[in-house]
Every structure is written in structure tokens, then in C-alpha cells.
Amino acid sequence: MSDPLIDQLDSLGIAYEIIPCDPELADTAQFCEAYGYSLDDSANTIVVAGKSDPTIHVACVVLASTRLDVNQVVKKRMGVRKASFASGAATEELTGMAIGGVTPFGLPDDLPLWVDGGVMLRDRIILGGGSRDRKVLAPPTILTTLGAEVVEGLARPAS
């Protein structure tokens, strides 16, 4: 049986590696600690909801060592008065993926994908694998090949 994640990754023509993980350790901090990855090389895919009628969404990829600037950069780019992290239920409904496994691969075609410029400076990044039992290790250029838009200042250093 075909695996949609693997099919999409293969179609991009960029080397990647699938890293199996214990679903109980899928959340970024636990995964990095258990498997020896740096937060600076771990990139989270976060869905943001913009308050409008109807609600609009965007997926953002930022390094785990940073914080997504929802209240200024994301809100302004979305063109809404208010934006917030989508709930776990809304994220799963929109993407088909649970928190801890959300990946930029296989997102709905109408969901914009923005990546912080800092992500693109890494040699390699570890991303969600579409489920809590795996991750994807790849160069960050895989995101622009996928069609992500690089947004400078999308994330700020975590304080």
C-alpha cells in the first residue's frame, strides 16, 4: 500500500530520512531530548487561525528554539484583526494530523505555507512526519521545493 507522505517526499527529488519515534515522545522537547536532536534543528509546523468570516488559516514552520510571532507578523500578513494558534481539534480537522505529528507535507492545497527565514539557515531540519510515530529529517530547501513562502521575521527568539 502506498504511503502519501513518502510519495510526496519522493516526488520532490530531495534526499530525506524518515526517523521512527515513540508516539509518547513526539512532542518536540521530549523528542529532541530522547533522540539527541537540537531544538535549533527541529522545526514545528503550526496552524494559525485568523478571525474572519469565514475563519482563515495558514501553516507556519518555525524552529523549535523560536516563537512564532502570531500577534504581529502573522496577523498582519493574514490581513485580520486577530489571530491565534488553531486548537488541536481544528488542526486535526484541517490537516488530518495530530499535534506532535503535523508536517508541511500533505497539507490541503488551499492552506498557505509560510516558513521563517531562520529555518532556511540550518543544514538540516527535523519536521513532523504526519503522525506521532515518525519524523522527517531533510535539508530546509525541501520546504521551498514544496512551495513554502519564506517570511523573514516570522519567528522571534524564544525568551
Give a concise summary.
The protein has 159 residues and is an alpha+beta fold. It has helices at residues 4-12, 28-35, 70-78, 88-95, 141-146; strands at residues 17-20, 43-50, 56-63, 66-68, 83-85, 113-116, 125-128, 134-138, 149-151, 155-157. The longest helix is centred in the first third of the chain and has 9 residues, at 4-12.
Strand and helix map with partners:
Elements: H1 4-12, E1 17-20, H2 28-35, E2 43-50, E3 56-63, E4 66-68, H3 70-78, E5 83-85, H4 88-95, E6 113-116, E7 125-128, E8 134-138, H5 141-146, E9 149-151, E10 155-157
Written description of the protein model:
This protein starts with a helix and ends with a strand. It has one domain: YbaK protein, CATH 3.90.960.10. It contains five helices and ten strands; from the N terminus they run H-E-H-E-E-E-H-E-H-E-E-E-H-E-E. With 159 residues, it is of the alpha+beta class. The chain has helices spanning 4-12, 28-35, 70-78, 88-95, 141-146, and strands at 17-20, 43-50, 56-63, 66-68, 83-85, 113-116, 125-128, 134-138, 149-151, 155-157. The radius of gyration is 15 Å and the shape is globular. The chain has a five-stranded mixed β-sheet with strand order 5-2-3-6-9.
Query: Which band does the percent of strand residues land in?
Result: 25-35%
Number of domains: 1
Task: Return the CATH class.
Answer: Alpha Beta
Helix content: 25-40%
Spell out the helices and strands N to C.
Answer: HEHEEEHEHEEEHEE
Q: Mind describing the biggest β-sheet?
A: 5 strands, mixed
Structural class: alpha+beta
Distance between the termini: 45 Å
> CATH homologous superfamily?
YbaK/aminoacyl-tRNA synthetase-associated domain
User: Radius of gyration, Cα only, in angstroms?
Assistant: 15 Å
Shape descriptor: globular
Strand order of the largest sheet: 5-2-3-6-9
CATH architecture: Alpha-Beta Complex
Oligomer: single chain
| Overall pLDDT score | 95
Number of helices: 5
Q: Total strand count, please?
A: 10
Question: What is the CATH T-level topology?
Answer: YbaK protein
Residue stretches low in confidence (pLDDT < 50, at least 5 long) are none
